[in-house]
Amino acid sequence: MSKALHFGVNLNNREPLIAPDYDLEALLDLSVVCEERGFDSVWLGDSLLSRPRWEPISLLSAISQRTQKVQLGTGIIVASARNPLWLAAEWATLDRISKGRTILGVGMGSNEPSVKAEFEALGLSMSDRVTLFEECLDISRQLLSTGYATLNGKHHQLDNVGFYSGSELGPMLPIQRPPPMYIASNPRIKGVSSAEVMARRMEKACRRIVKLGDGWMTCCRAQHPEEVTEQLDTIRRIASEEGKDPDSFSVAYQVTLRIGDSKESAKADIEQYIAQYYPELSKIIDLSEWGPVGNADDISEWIETFAEAGVDTFVCRFGSMDQAGQVERFASEVLPRFRK
Question: What CATH number was assigned to the domain covering residues 6-338?
Answer without folding.
Answer: 3.20.20.30
